[in-house]
Amino acid sequence: MTTKLLALSPLTDANITTLEKYHVTVVTPENITPDDYSDIVISYGWRSKIINKILETPNNQLKWIQSFSAGVDFMPLDDLKKHQIILTNTSGQKAVPIAQSVMSYIFHFARGLHVYQSQNHWEPFEQQFTLQELPVVIFGTGRIGQQIAAYLHIFGSTVYGVNTTGHPVGSFENVFAIDNLQEIPKDIAIVINALPGTTDTENFFNKEHLDLFKNLFLFVNIGRGSTVNEQDLLNKLNDGSIQHAALDVTKQEPIPKDSKLWHQDNLILTQHSTWAGESESLFHVFMKNLPDFLTDKPLTYNVVDYERGY
Q: Which stretches make up the D-isomer specific 2-hydroxyacid dehydrogenase catalytic domain (predicted)?
């Protein structure tokens, strides 16, 4: 018996050969016909138009969608839940390049490179810091947060974490529940936001929560643009209560030409590109679950919780 897979993300010849060993037949958007819709069991990737056609087909067999991204907030999660479809994401797939980008942000400001970048005269800048001087809190203790924490530990940083319940995670000195932020130490110098985009995290970093951190050296967002109230952040950058910021994600992408973000000197915008660089392939992530799926075992890797939205 074969299982039909719709390849909405690219597969190599070697990938297809591997799938054939598992008796998985690959269908592509180029060769799929309406007669195939009812037989598709797995979607490797996402395209709303074609997935909707499959879901509208009576007695369709679609049971599993492998997302090409970590975030799934752009998908109709309620509808997928209603159809009892298993959804897996690529959380952690880009942890290494993202974490290295975060380290580059920190070094850029801590070692004074932001000053020398535009300076065209001799004036040594000595208001620099080592990472041991800059305690860090990371909001989101998943694979990306853990990878950032691992790099920071190499340089002697003190690293705290924030997650939903405050449950301990090995690479953090201490972890706090997201509804108990008053317990976070008062000397935090760097806040790194790796939160997912959900209804609970929308505009989470607003004036109220940013006010918890006095004289913050650096605010970083590599989570979701929806989690930050950008005007409140800009106000903080302008009044000096936050010295620097680095945003890889923003509410609107691409950022509008007339956005104030472009003109904030103490802000770096990397335009949703920290993921770039060699990382674990989508197919490798997918294959961690395929054998279990084909033998009717529960999937255990990167399964999206529809209630939480990630």
A: 9-273
- Pairwise CA distance, residues 50 & 7, whole Å: 11
Give the domain extent around 69.
3-91+280-294
* 246 and 127 housed in the same domain: yes
**Cβ distance 153 to 131 under 8 Å?**
no
Question: Residue 304 falls within a domain, yes or no?
Answer: no
Measured N-to-C along each axis, helices 143-154 and 95-110 cross at an angle, to the nearest 10 degrees, of: 40
Please give the structure tokens belonging to residue 19: 């799938």
Whole-number Cα distances in Å, 179 to 167, 185, 188, 193, 285: 13, 15, 18, 15, 32
**190-193: strand order across its sheet:** 174-177, 159-163, 136-139, 190-193, 216-221, 242-247, 267-269
As given in the structure block, the two tokens for residue 252 are: 């609107």
State yes or no: cis peptide before 254, omega within 30 of 0: yes
Instruction: Please name the amino acid found at residue 190.
Output: I
Check whether residue 155 and residue 67 sit in a common domain. no
Place of tokens 């959804």: 87
Do 113 and 258 lie in a common domain? yes
Quote the pTM value.
0.85
Q: Note whether 119 and 179 are same-domain residues.
A: yes
Q: Is residue 198 within 8 Å of 309, Cβ to Cβ? A: yes
Q: How far is CA 154 from CA 36, 93, 110, 282, in A?
A: 52, 21, 16, 28
List per-block mean pLDDT (blocks of 10 residues) for the chain, which spans 310 residues. Answer: 96 97 97 96 97 96 96 94 97 95 98 94 96 98 96 98 96 96 97 95 98 96 97 98 98 97 97 92 96 98 94
State the residue for tokens 């897979």. 5
Identify whether the C-beta of residue 221 lies closer than 8 Å to the C-beta of residue 236. no
How far from each other are the two terminal CA atoms of the chain, in whole angstroms? Answer: 33
